């Protein structure tokens, strides 16, 4: 029943980095969030949590339609995402998450565009 509206302004600047600008605490050879699920396996629950990277047209369509994002990423996750983005002449922008051990993709719409181009939907 309050008649006044309170507006909060975010003053924290988000640092946007390209993949080459990320300084990793640890370089990984296994993905943390960009995991591949074989065709036919149940994946949507994990995909909604940001733990699945689409490897088929059906998965890519579900990823985009459900508005999924990849969760915090390590160095291997970033290299997987960058390969797809570069193939379609796009570039990922990232920001550090937590203690700077992981990053998050800021420009999710570019990943969606790359998936649509890759799987032609």
Describe the structure.
23% of the residues are buried. The chain contains four helices and two strands. Mean pLDDT is 89; it is low at 1-8. Helix 2 packs antiparallel against helix 4 and helix 3 packs across helix 4 (108-119). It has a two-stranded antiparallel ribbon. It has 121 residues and is mainly α. It has helices at residues 44-48, 57-65, 75-87, 108-119, and strands spanning 94-97, 102-105.
Major sheet details: 2 strands, antiparallel
Main-sheet strand order equals: 1-2
Ends distance: 47 Å
**What percent of residues adopt helix (DSSP H or I)?**
25-40%
Total beta strand runs: 2
- Rg, rounded, reads 16 Å
Based on CA inertia axes, which overall geometry fits? globular
The topology string of helices and strands comes to HHHEEH
Global mean pLDDT = 89
Structural class: mainly alpha
Please tally the helical runs, counting DSSP H or I stretches of 4 or more residues: 4
Tell me the strand percentage band. 5-15%
Low-pLDDT windows of residues: 1-8
């Amino acid at each position: 029943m309050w008649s006044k509206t309170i507006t909060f302004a975010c003053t924290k600047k988000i640092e946007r980095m390209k993949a080459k600008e990320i300084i990793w605490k640890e370089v990984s050879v296994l993905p943390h969030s960009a995991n591949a699920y074989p065709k036919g396996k149940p994946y949507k629950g994990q995909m909604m949590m940001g733990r699945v990277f689409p490897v088929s047209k059906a998965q890519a369509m579900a990823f985009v339609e459900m508005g999924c994002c990849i969760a915090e990423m390590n160095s291997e996750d970033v290299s997987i995402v960058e390969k797809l983005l570069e193939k379609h002449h796009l570039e990922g922008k990232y920001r550090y998450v937590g203690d700077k051990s992981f990053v998050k993709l800021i420009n999710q719409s570019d990943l969606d565009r790359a998936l649509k181009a890759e799987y032609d939907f």
